[in-house]
Amino acid sequence: MTGNPHTSVRSRTVAAELRRLREERGLSCVEVGRTLGVSASKISRIETGHSGLQADDVATLLGYYQVPSVRRQELLDLLRRGDQKGWWQRQAGLPKLWRMLIDYENRAARIQHYASLLVPGLLQTGEYCEAVLHGTDESLSAAELDNLVASRMGRQTVLTRSTAPQYLAVVHEAALRMPVGGPGLMLRQVRHLLTIAERPNIVLRAVPFSAGANAGLRGSFMVLELADEPDVVHVEGQVTATFLEDESDVSRYRLALRNILNVALSPAATAALLEAIVAELS
C-alpha cells in the first residue's frame, strides 16, 4: 500500500491507533458516528488517514473511547509534532518527494539502504551529487542545480547529529566503479566513502560483481525504521517515488535485504575493495 503523501507518518500512526481503539471496543464506524453526531464516512476517513486529522476530533474520539489521560496526551502530542516543519519543508524549490524522504530520514532510528547503480545520496560528495543531477536532468538551470545540491548536502547532517540514526548502506560494485563525472571525481568520492564508513553509526557493505544474480537486481530501496511509528520502505523510480507502509510489503523488502546481505562483502572486505578502487583510479 502506498501512503497518502499529504499525511505525515505521525498522523497515520494516530489514525491507526484510533481504528485499533474502536475495534478493540467492538464498535463500528456507524455506531461511533451516530453517538458523536457525525457520519460513519468521516470516522472511516480519519482512521485511514485520507482526512487531515484535527486535534479536536482526535481528542473527542480518545475521550469517547475512555483512553487514559497519559496515553491521550501522548497521542495528541504526537499529532502536533507531525505538523512541525523542518528546514527541508521551508526551503523553496525542493521537490515534494525530496521533502517527504528527508522528513522520514529525520524521524528514523535506523536506515537500511540498498543502492544498485549510484552511491547513496546520504554518502555522496557535493561534486558527485551535482554530476548525477545534471546527468539525469540536463534541463536544470544552474540555480536549480545549486539548490538541489545544497539540499542534499544539508540532508546528510542527519548522520552526524547527536541523535543520528544507525545507517547501513549496501552498495553494488557497479555504483562504485561507474565513472560519474570522470576518474578524478570518482577517486574523491570513493575516498569519502572510506572516511565516512569509520563513523560508529555507519556500516558500509559492497555487493561484488562476483555475486552474480541476486535479489538486488530488482532495484534500489530504503527501509526506514521509525521510532514509535510504522516502518516504511522508499522505492524511487524514474520520475516518481513510492512510500510503502503495509506490513507485508515492508516484510518482503526486509527479506530482499537479508538475501542481498548474504552475498555482500563484510565491512572489512568492502574497505579493501574501496582501497583497490582508489589504487586503480590513482
UniProtKB/TrEMBL annotation:
It comes from the Bacteria. InterPro entries: Cro/C1-type_HTH, DUF5753, Lambda_DNA-bd_dom_sf. Residues 18-73 form the HTH cro/C1-type domain. GO terms for molecular function: DNA binding. It holds the Pfam family HTH_31. This is Transcriptional regulator.
